[in-house]
Write a structure and sequence with these properties.
This protein has 221 residues and is mainly β. It has one domain. The chain contains two helices and eleven strands. Strand 10 and strand 11 form a beta hairpin.
Length: 221
């Protein structure tokens, strides 16, 4: 779940046709960026009609994560809010990138406040996607972010005690990628968008599908 909620560039998604009139260059992409707006929606649907919709919205200072689970005609909604301590990205001309995301959420348990701090540091390589025959994209309208490493740290504090958990994942080149369409590229602003759609059929004949969209707006730090 953490990758859906907090990791902007670490879930393998396939970008499909998104109309765009923007294109970029290495000079425009390379910068020290802060994420000013992030919106993501993912819908998972089973053949029996069960559905889970996960939505994440972030500004420079706040984060809201909502999950709606529908099964058997009834639904349950879970909402979590947090404070964005850091949400920034460095894109270098040498084809590498690093992303840091630090978010703190609080909740009340039996009248006592519990705090969860989550920090994700992701890094990898990036490159523009070349134009292919038959597509509607222009040169430098699509960019691929390849994740090579991701470190996640969580500190949970409740009733005066803290618990820390941490993990580090590494990936081969091409194993964990995300392709974005550049919808805006200016000297101090960058906007990216992606869509994904996939389906799966199990050996027992059951099917499931996943659809999602992600939009990110960045501004020069």
């Amino acid at each position: 779940m953490k990758k859906i909620i907090y990791s902007t560039l670490s879930v393998a998604l396939l970008a499909v046709s998104i109309s765009s009139c923007a294109k970029s260059s290495k000079g425009k992409m390379a910068n020290e960026w802060k994420v000013t707006e992030f919106n993501s929606t993912e819908t998972d649907t089973d053949s029996n009609g069960d559905q889970t919709v996960s939505t994440t919205s972030m500004t420079e200072s706040t984060a809201t994560m909502t999950t709606v689970q529908t099964s058997g005609g009834s639904s349950q909604t879970t909402t979590q809010s947090g404070t964005v301590n850091a949400n920034e990205m460095t894109i270098d001309k040498d084809g590498t990138w690093t992303s840091t995301r630090d978010i703190t959420s609080t909740q009340s348990i039996l009248g006592t406040t519990a705090t969860t701090n989550m920090k994700t540091v992701t890094s990898g390589t990036w490159a523009f996607v070349g134009k292919t025959k038959g597509d509607d994209f222009k040169k430098n309208e699509r960019v691929l972010f390849n994740t090579l490493s991701e470190t996640y740290t969580q500190v949970y504090t409740y009733n005066g005690s803290s618990q820390t958990s941490a993990s580090t994942d590494t990936y081969l080149t091409g194993e964990n990628v995300m392709i974005y369409t550049v919808t805006e590229s200016k000297g101090k602003e960058l906007a990216l968008e992606s869509e994904m759609s996939s389906s799966n059929t199990s050996t027992g004949g059951g099917t499931s599908s996943t659809k999602g969209t992600t939009t990110i707006k960045l501004a020069e730090k």
